[in-house]
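Hi L.,

You mentioned the student needs an example of a multi-chain input paired with its predicted structure. This one should do, with 1000 residues in total across all chains.
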Amino acid sequence: MPEQARTRNFCIVAHIDHGKSTLADRILEITHAVADRDMRAQYLDRMDLERERGITIKAAAVRLSYDSKDGENYELNLIDTPGHVDFSYEVSRALNACEGAVLLVDASQGIEAQTLANLHLAIEADLEVIPVVNKIDLPSAQPEKVAQELQQVIGCELEDILFVSGKTGEGVQALLEAIVRRVPPPTGDPVAQPRGLIFDSTYDQYRGVIAYVRVVDGNLFKGQRIRMMATGAVHDLEEVGALAPDPTPLQSLGAGEVGYFIGGIKNIRDAKVGDTITDAQRPATEPLAGYREPKPMVYAGLFPVAGDDYPDLRDALERLALNDAALVYEPETSKALGFGFRCGFLGLLHMEITRERLEREFDLELVTTAPNVAYRVVLTSDEVITVRNPSDLPDPSHIEKIEEPMVSALILAPGEYVGTLMEMCQSRRGILDGMNYLSADRVELRYRLPLAEIIFDFFDQLKARTRGYASLDYEHVGYQTAELVRVDILLHNDPVDAFSAIVHRERAYTYGRAMVSKLRELIPRQMFDVPLQAAIGSRIIARETVKAKRKDVLAKCYGGDITRKRKLLEKQKAGKRRMKQIGSVEVPQEAFIAALQVGGGGVTDDKKGDK
Amino acid sequence: MTAVSPAVELEPRADVLHLAPAFGIYVHIPYCISRCPYCDFNTYVGIEDTAPEYVDALLREASSWAERAGAREAGSIFIGGGTPSLLDPTLMRKLLDGLRATFRVSGDAEITIEANPETVDVERLRGFRSAGVNRISFGAQSFRADVLATLGRAHTAERTEAAVREARAAGFDNLNLDLIYGTPGESVDDWRLSLEKGISLEPEHLSAYALTIEEGTAFGADIAAGRMPAPDDDDQAAKYELALDLLADAGYEHYEISNWAKPGRACRHNLVYWTQGEYAGLGAGAHGHLDAARVWNEKVPRTYIERAPDAQAGEERLERAARLDEWLQLRLRLVGGLGVEDAVRRLGRDLSPALKYLEGAGLVTCIDGRARLTRRGLLLQSEVALRMT
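Structure written out for the whole complex:
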């Protein structure tokens, strides 16, 4: 049998907690990929660590050797897929590196929105889907019911569905046989000009970028001079290999194979996910389809609490960007917060991860402004500009229209929550695209929603209103004109750019009121009255006052304990230093994310759900 | 920023610096009949039987302090608590005789004891007086029954009035009443009544303290748990201003943030603290200040008794700059005003930017080279202290 005929490339599509890691453990055991004495629970998850060879690897693709019942030995490549909606493009690239997908669903929980979304991606990528019901050993398992659900969403035959227990190992052998039998082998041209799809990458401090590649045509070998077709970057391959599951250097990776390469690439932007690698001397003419620049969807300002830290923040962002191709940033000057950066993220999770890394790995104290989406603004001059910072929105008299990014959201939930979910989506300007019963009590809702409406607390609200049962996935579906206005917040009569937000006209009043009342709680009383106002242009839509502090005196000194009194004053002094001075007003850090707490729009409507 | 004309808001205030002794003695008596729910002082219930041993320990410590104090002459002795009036008059005499025998004590030294109204009668007070006590400070706190109940006080308003009469009969001609304002449930009229009642008893001295919630007290826990409302700053501010008005009208001079006195009757011992003066600190948890070191004792009475005279638990020596800041922060408590030129010389730095800001904010007014807190500044004294240091 030729090489490619004995290769199977597949991934496991599963929701978090549906048992992917445990199933992978059983597969590693059956294929003897890990010696029994080295085996430990959730083996692949633990590989995201510094290993003895000093390379930071992640189990993006594991090569397994499987002796099938048909007497042949097969090379199985298990390709990992990222698990969060922020990274759906990365998921699509990983799926494109496979010919088959195991759709793994928990026998007691049923299919989740993200799994369903990834299933659709797999079907689009023309993968052979093997539906599997997992955790059949659990007392609460309802395998037949879940199987019916799967049959409904995939449109497969009931007998195509496998039943396994990753925990006990039941059915895992049969699954491997099904992979060999049902997943087609790769069909690339082994002698054509090389083409490989980069579907994931990681960054090692010493070796640079480690890129994970699916070779489609030709082959990649050590010492080869290669070129990235989208970025044009040229590098020499220092090492090619496969994870088995430890990194194992090989002479070459042939058509249909999956592995990694290292090429002294110091910036991850030279080896972006989705790019096609080819031979620099004998380049392919056409890149593989589907490459796309990483596109930030959510923007926020990052400012150092201490102005002196600005150069450190700049250096830290530079370092982070080396291994995060999706992170974009540009210098920003805020009247209120001074020098900082406007950063673009794939989503809120990406933003949180980045902020956390900056604070933890680089020891920075940061103020993050409320996140916002990027708006397309058509000016009366017909010029089109992109506004990533609300304070950059031009004067309304120059604006013809404002377009905002939209998403198509997929929500799966038990039928009893349909009412509350519809109410919630409608309050966030959602338009129902469709509703479909997956089973008697599981409903799929499709909504078209402004991205701005879901970047705040949509997910939390969704979980809260459905006692955690609903799941969400969404994809970007372009821009749409909307009645949007900028709400400014004036502190002591001066607008504070960092507090400005672009919101729907109908929500502006509610939003403005909620913001000023939240800020009134968060801003401590000062030595003078501080008026807080929300305004659209020059029109004030809400007003509150932080009343002047009247009393701030330590009543007595007990028995000559002057030390205690001095320490109390020192504590007060330290508290003052932690505040950001805006004009003559001292503002605590929390105030800058007040908008997160009041939500992007559906403020009052959401409150109903709390009752 | 509301600027109020100085003429309206500056009432006469005593310049009391000349009354401040350079050295004083503080003695802590850690006994109480019951624990008040707002109190976080170093005090214990039901251990009064240790008093004889405790007084012995105090005198052992006195010898040690007197040695270090050398030629310093004490202009004041302040016996605070706890409830010093729980000490038997004979023990009080033993204590004071002992102090006079070990320290150099000025012949006209101010000798104060704190007393709770329910612990005294005329005979007991005579005993204290003849032991040498010449000033008595009663913890009156309020003259409203419901406020006293909230504060967990063991006495009635009538008992306080009686105690004042008894003290006069016993020969005390220098008497203070402590009052507390801003207790949850206390109305402005309640406070007015307490002030008026206090004034009508004609004490030489009145202290008015805002109820302060401390961690670790019953009130602290009640407020944290939402069982009791926290004192309201605006309410306390209004009551403070009422005190300023009523006490000025009654002829009391305001000399420190929380203290008022008839002319010449400012508490000398307290002035030691606010002028960064030196003092011996005797007893469990007592603080002392000598040769630029602040020291404090073991808090638990039993341990104190065992360890005295070596009962010190901690010490603090500040850098020169911090010590100068401390001086200023303390000094700003005295409301008679700060001689700016003198302060600048002492601190070695320019105060004018801070003063200019504080004047602009209406917290301080500078007249004839003296910076004085305005009425607003009195209430925002911490802010003033922070801005100036």
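You could point out the following to them. Residues 505-522 of chain A form the longest helix (18 residues). Residues 27 and 265 of chain A are 33 Å apart (CA to CA).

Best wishes,
N.
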